[in-house]
Amino acid sequence: MTAQEERLCGLLLQEHFGEVVEKVGTHLLCNGNLNLRALVHETKLPLDLVKKSVCVLVQQGMCTFCTGRRGPGAPVEYQICGEKVLHMLRYPRYIYTAKSLYGDTGELIVEEILQRGQMTMSNTVSTVADRLTHNMPEGQCMDYSEVVTAFSRLVETHFLQRSAPMTPAGSSTSGGADSNPPSVTEPIQPETNPDCYKLPYINISGKGKRTRSDDGDAEQSTAKKAKTDNSESGDEGIYWQVNFERFHLHFRDQAIISAVASKLDQTSSEIVRTMLRMSEVTTPANAAFTQALSANEIFRSLPSTYNIARPILDQYLTLLVDDPVCLHIYSQIHATSFLMTVCVHLCSLVGLCHYLAMLCVRFGSRSARIFRLLLRKRHLEQKQVEDFAMVPAKEAKDMLYKLLSENLVQLQEIPKTPDHAPSRTFYLYTVNQLPTARLLLQHCYKTVGNLIERRLYETKENKQTSEKSMIITKIGISCSTTGRSPLSYTKVCVWSTCPKTLQVFVCSLHLVKLMSVNNCIDNCNRVLFSHGSSNARACRLK
């Protein structure tokens, strides 16, 4: 990992799990595979804290383990996956997507599993039902069957999957030298399990229970109840986790639909949406193409609310096929099938839009025009850039050198003679999309790290005032619900002066703006990462 990625991972671990877990995780990121004794010695932390930190990382699916490099009998070594740590940036987006697709129940299911790393189905159902019941009016309860239905729909659409077993079946915990845990270099993927998306039969029924807010041991009693219910539900040892790749595939599909809608029209985007939905479960996340779909299958799968006749559909499919970035058509014996290039071409289109937007903001519209021209023409001399872009020679020279100094364009020398004399050498400017995507991605990681540091600083500086404001708000709510005299609330409000109230308001406004910018940059991160991955796969295919 690069230095910016390691810094960002450390900030995310610190924000979510604290400084101890951040120190252990950052040390694993920087040093690779380490055993427990080496971690304790190099981090200078107590053994108990290091064990708890490693357990947290393993529970969240960010850390894996294997036998030592010396073979069986050697101490177990741990390794952290930086890419899974970076997934924490998108936790709010995952939760919002589940809410938009499956309502409040799906939102709470994904939120609980993200918070705890992995959970059994029965434990998730009971916890979510209790939370929904607590927010309902008096006399209403959430039935377990409704939560089970939402959980089943998440599994059917592959947003949830079974966690991979940490050790092979039949391995004993006592004989460490005789067992061979899985290798870290080739970790077990959940998709290798044939029952990855198979729902177990659980014996759970009832309704959610309302917990009192003034019960100090509410969380402990809930955990004890969950353990008791889990032992009788029939899904012991079957844990579920969030399928991040499926969420990323959904985000990519939404970006493709938006790109088609802006390039053509809304009807074309709805047809593309239908084609993507038909193969969303069967298409791997890293596939360059969707499944081959015939025009009859597409027509039958279109929702009736679209009111698209078959001749109109054929015209739109022909329009999409004629567009070089949307569809590829292959003639078969009995019918014509359409195959969509969702990764290579359409992701390149979306990534190009982000390139040009960032260049316009940073270097101006003329630099973006030169960049787009180099992408289209591949190789151009400085004189050709001036002519095609219609930019004066002096400005074109300055812009090209500025882009070259930022490593956004490359300069290639083609000598006519072996002496490389400047007068007998062609100097061609070009753009290599893969290094450019990685460079812009590193800039985005640096920006997100700066935003997190600023947010942590704002929270720390205004912590006391914010806590005081929260206490006053809770007292006001308590007075209004219990019917007490507002005199006590008035006395409490005297504590909060006008400048402090303004300070709390300004701090909350800054935090909201920082979170909003963070979400926008994370969206750009996702597009650039997808674009770089698709370009890398295209280069390997060539």
Automatic annotation (TrEMBL):
UniProt domain DNA-directed RNA polymerase III subunit RPC3 winged-helix: residue ranges: 362-431
The protein's assembly and partners: Component of the RNA polymerase III (Pol III) complex consisting of 17 subunits.
Family: Belongs to the eukaryotic RPC3/POLR3C RNA polymerase subunit family.
Domain of life: Eukaryota
GO biological process: DNA-templated transcription
Keyword Transcription in record: yes
Compartment annotation: Nucleus
Region (Disordered): 164-234
InterPro entries found in the cross-reference section: POLR3C_WHD (IPR055207), RNA_pol_III_RPC82-rel_HTH (IPR013197), RNA_pol_III_Rpc82_C (IPR008806), RPC3 (IPR039748), WH-like_DNA-bd_sf (IPR036388)
GO cellular component: RNA polymerase III complex
Residue stretches making up the RNA polymerase III subunit RPC82-related helix-turn-helix domain: 8-66
Name listed for the protein in its UniProt record: DNA-directed RNA polymerase III subunit RPC3
Residues in RNA polymerase III Rpc82 C -terminal domain copies: 150-325
Key words of the record: DNA-directed RNA polymerase, Nucleus, Transcription
Organism: Triplophysa tibetana
GO molecular function, one term: single-stranded DNA binding
Comp. bias regions, Polar residues: 169-183
Any Pfam family: RNA_pol_Rpc82
Function of the protein: DNA-dependent RNA polymerase catalyzes the transcription of DNA into RNA using the four ribonucleoside triphosphates as substrates. Specific core component of RNA polymerase III which synthesizes small RNAs, such as 5S rRNA and tRNAs.
